[in-house]
Amino acid sequence: MTMQVYSRWDLEGMHDFLECLEPDMALKILTCLDDSADLVRASAVSRYWQKVVVSNGLCKQLCMRTFPQLGSITRVVEPSHDNLGKSEHRAYASLFRAITAFPLTFCIADPVSASSTGYPKDSIKNTICRGSYFKTICRGSYWLSRGSDDPETPETLIYNLSANFCVVTEINLHLRKGWSGYPIYSSRFVRFRMGHPKSVKDLNYDFIKAQECADDKFIWTYTSPVFPVAQENLLQKFRLPAPVVCIGGYLQIELLGRVSKSSDDKYYICVAQVEAIGRTLSPLFSVAFSESSDDVHLKYDAEECGYILSTCGSISRVQPQH
What was the pLDDT predicted at 313? Predict the structure, then answer.
């Protein structure tokens, strides 16, 4: 629903029509707005309209309905503003626009761990793609699992995203065939999780060097549906059902089931490169976690927001090629 406000007065009685309604009806009308820009315009019509929008947290409600992952946020911190109600209104109005308007970019920063690795040279580090297209696959530029006698044994890859608060829309995997052309070392299905570490201290450990899995060091707040992997296509693009707000900045790729059997009678999984596409919300927004409680604080930089949102159409960022 898009709203255009020409005048807050009716032409005969010169009364604010919304104020003449029962409070519940006025609230119901404004709740139908599905764009934070319209809610901001509505709040500027009169003090009464502003009261309905701000005191009921309509921008926050809109964000929560559209992006359920935001439900874990317990508090908004805006250093330049002391009024909690208006601070939340400003922050969530800007957040909704940032999530839907910022340009797409590449979101993976660094690898964290793999559940297993065949040899040190087959590290998860080989899977990082830092460009607008997958680099040429060559010998040694892939991650290979240790292999298993059980074709149902899953494997996991964990990555640190480029910000601890971002939106992911698509994840791409580049598989690899055996050097003779066959077989394809691949999983049958894939699933994605996003979340944050249980403790920042746990991540000071080098899981890759130790060839250890870090799965139990995270709280996964989002889990995707299970996607089938098409074995005939080396480049797999998985578009999520809806954009996912990753609160915490970590992505887990869960590879389910194994397809091909190698010559030494073990089942392996091989992934050449991984790419996550989405929107980075920093430096406008970031999140902070309290390890002594379940508090998640959303930090909002209003001054930075005024500049970036006014120029977001021309921000210089890498644009994924599709």
Answer: 44
